[in-house]
Amino acid sequence: MSKTIKVQGMTCEHCVNAVQKAILKLDNTAKVNVDLKTGLVSVDTMQPRETLIAAVKDAGYEATAP
To answer: Which helix (H) or strand (E) holds 58?
Structure first.
């Protein structure tokens, strides 16, 4: 199941990698697509959106539902 969140505070590819890594640590999470320009992150996961947002916040970025 694909879910989308909006991430604020990403400014470079290092930020993109940090967000991807934080999300991929979650169970039942496969593909993560991060668009640096728009801040939209699409994830193939069974995790609830709130769990994705919490993981991104733990990585040091702000995240919300789009």
So the answer is: helix 49-58
Q: Tell me the two tokens of residue 43.
A: 């994830």
pTM: 0.93
E-strand ranges in the chain read 2-8, 29-34, 40-45, 62-64
CA dist 29 → 3, 24, 47, 52 (Å):
11, 6, 7, 10
Question: Which letter does DSSP use for residue 28 in this model?
Answer: T
Q: What digits encode the pLDDT tens for the residues 31-55?
A: 999 999 999 999 999 999 999 999 9
Token pair for 49:
């959106």
Which residues share a beta bridge with 29? 45
> Does domain 2-64 correspond to CATH entry 3.30.70.100?
yes
- Domain spans, the chain: 2-64
